[in-house]
Fold this protein.
Amino acid sequence: MFGYYLDLALRSFRRNKVLTTLMVLALGLGIGASITTLTVLRLLSGDPLPQKSARLFTPELNPLTAKDSSGAGPAPMGDLVAYVDAMNLLRAHKAQRQAAMALTGVKISSPRPNQSPFFSNGVMTTADFFAMFDAPFQYGTGWTAQSGQDAARVVVIGQRLNDKLFGGRDSVGKTIRVNDRDYRVIGVLRHWAPQPSFYSVSLSQDSSYGNGDSVFMPLRSARADKMGPESVNCWQSAAGSLETSPSCAWLSVWVELVEPSGAQAYRTFLANYVDAQIAAGRFHLHQQWLPNLMGFLAQQQVVPDDAFLQTWLAFGFLLICVVGTVGLLLAKCLGRAHEIGVRRAMGASRVTLFAQFMVESALVGIAGGVLGLGVAELGLWEIRHEPVQYAHLAHLDPAMFLATFAVALVASLIAGILPAVRACLVAPAPQLKSV
Amino acid sequence: MDTQPILATLRRHKLIAVLLALLVALTCAIVCNVTFMIRQQIALTDLPSGVAENQLVMIESVNLDRQANQIEAHKTDLAALRMIPGVKSAAAVLSLPFTGINWSSSVPPGRDAPGNVVASLFNGTPGEVETLGLKLIAGRDFRPDEYIPLDSAHGEDGINHVPAAIVTRALAERLFPGQNPLGKSIWPGNGAVRIVGVVNHLLRPGVDAGNDNDYSVLLSMLPDTASITYVLRTAPQNRARVLKQAKAVLYRVDGNRVLRDAMTFTELRAHYFRRQRSMIGLLLASALGLLLVAALGITGLANFWVQQRTRSIGIRRALGATRANVLHYFQTENFLIVTGGIVLGVILAIGLNLLLMAHYQQPRLPLWYLAVGAVALWILGQLAVLAPALRAAAVPPVVATRSV
């Protein structure tokens, strides 16, 4: 039966080439636009560490007075905390793993002669960083808590930097110069660039979707060599260094907890910590937050408004295309009243006619999907040439490939319902008379 | 033309008429809003920066010797840069329009003045106004003795004791409406800073859709950071050569530095607005795509309609209707349907705009966009229906006698 419907559908397309082409064109454009924007939106709002994100949390504190933090929204400092708070949280060891981190721009000079120095992004952090974030090592390992304490000049480098400096070979034990100091390579990461780069969100202005950081150094060593954090937020006139000032926030702390009991315990610990700080006169409000990774990204509104706006626009476009297709299908089906009358008279039931017309719409939908795929590839190609940080990530993955056809089928079947119902309602007798 | 028979016919073909009107309404709603977005993006890229854009080149230098006296280093560099043939003047600045390096501060017109006006602060070496080509419309440039002494604090603390400021006209009008701003004071830090001059324009380092893009303050204060931008003013045709020589000169003066972002101001502007330009392209493409789909839909349905009514057209022709009558019949029919769609579309457009205002900080849609959108859709409808209507007009009266 299905084969027969297909045959009928193809015959009808051949009879009505112009209408069919118009329908496929309209659906294809709408689907292409929607899939392009959906791909971008999915990529921007994705989970950077799907296997672990539910267990990663970042404590947020509010050291401001009620007056200063009014109107600033939840967590006015994001997850930035002062050095003293970061160290207190780390030393408490209340989580399975915990690390503090800040970003810093560094100058890297190659051990090779005649390669000029260049700037790159560095992360200053503590020992648990790699294990906690599942950063994959290609060679070597991270540093131990002890060598972090001792401010050892050791560094873990990213794959791209290793390719650039050492041609991708095992460089563990070699030396690179970071801000004119010798650092010994103890580990090389495999390509690692979580998208969005969740740990950079508060630490830097515009690095939510990067290509991965290139050097990772122990916090103490980097600070001993005067490397400065990219983002510093002081709420009182600051005196002394970043380490001694109790009123400058520049570090993020992330902790790995056992859900759900761990999170509850950590919340209690955090509340007690804030109480102690209020008693000491440092903080003023009983406010603290502990969002998990995805909660933090949502709170920080990492996905740009542009991306949402474009998606809405594209689906508005698709809606217009579907309405247009409904009209065209309807026109086609009303023009076939004779044929329908004959089929009904020969014993076809309303249900079979309905099915026949839906098969025809589905066929239009699949053709539209194929065209839409082409349009989406074109759109993504265009986005890859756009000056946005996430440009290099815009590719159609298998899931979106399937989604294209799902959207196409759903759109065309919705468009087909009304014309198919109209077709079923054709009364056979009057049609037969005039033949 | 009598619309009575047309309305009667439409009542018998409700479904298709409603679909057509819906198509027009949705198109109207989205295209009006998209056009408005395009207009806003274009307005942003057209903002005047206030500087002599086609005469400036910039180069950013990062001194790697953090212990060095940066103010002295800037002075040495500038002296060397001024020797390059073709350089009319040179200055060291922390920031420029479109660099994104933004030092924002509230600038109340009194110690505890109410209201909160935020402006961007610019510092630079003497001659900055001249080098950038800013147009002084009142007052004067800074005097050499107004720059804060070398041995006192610069940077963040400098704003507490800097004596003089030059503000943009927009900021002056905002702070002192209807008054002469010269001699008045602003309080960016904990001291009064006297306004000695007013410039026509100076765009903030980053611009957005707001109306405070021109709120800038120049302070008589030297930049003291290791990372500094040198601006050179030269004739437009010399820019590439001067930029190349500037690099060589700076490396010769002191090799322990990193030079980056060497470019002309024209390039900086183009670079800054890349994202806006691609956004404009995208919006334009989607608006055109929408209109195309709407036109295709109207043509397709009108074509079908003509085909279905061939016989009745033949009868009308046989009864004495002229070709023009038939043509006008279909054109009027299209006009009526499109009008219905536009009425609905205007309501939808306003609704969509309200939604965007609530969620995406869009401003209110000016009503004349709706008027333009309506006219555009009427024209689009008439164009789309023209071919089918002509086909209808060409139906010969003899069709009436056939196959009845």
